[in-house]
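Lecture 7 notes: from sequence to structure.

We start with a single chain of 112 residues. Read the sequence below before looking at the structure.
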Amino acid sequence: MLGMEIKEERFRPILVTKGRKTGNPHSVWLRAVKYNEKIYFSRHRPDGDWYQNAIANPEVKIQYNNMEFSGKAAPVTDEKLNQKLSQLKYPGEQRANEKRVAIEVTLDNTIQ
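Now the structure, written as tokens:
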């Protein structure tokens, strides 16, 4: 599976979303978590551009280690999974206990 190209559990890729208003590419460097062969991005509130763009236009790209992966984003609605993702993203830190919203990216099977 393509996701195996990303070996790290925690890493800092560039997430490229399609602007929900402009339709233009929107790139942002974020902390990500790989868990159960999916890639997760989270934040405190759902007001960030990248989060809202991914919800409006779920076709996203992840750029990492000179590779680009395409995938489909979906909001994470399972609170237990959200909590687990925070613990993976911030191991041993107090903020691992803070409530977050997250998207789950299922990678396509092709490298761009």
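The radius of gyration is 13 Å. Keep this in mind for problem set 3.
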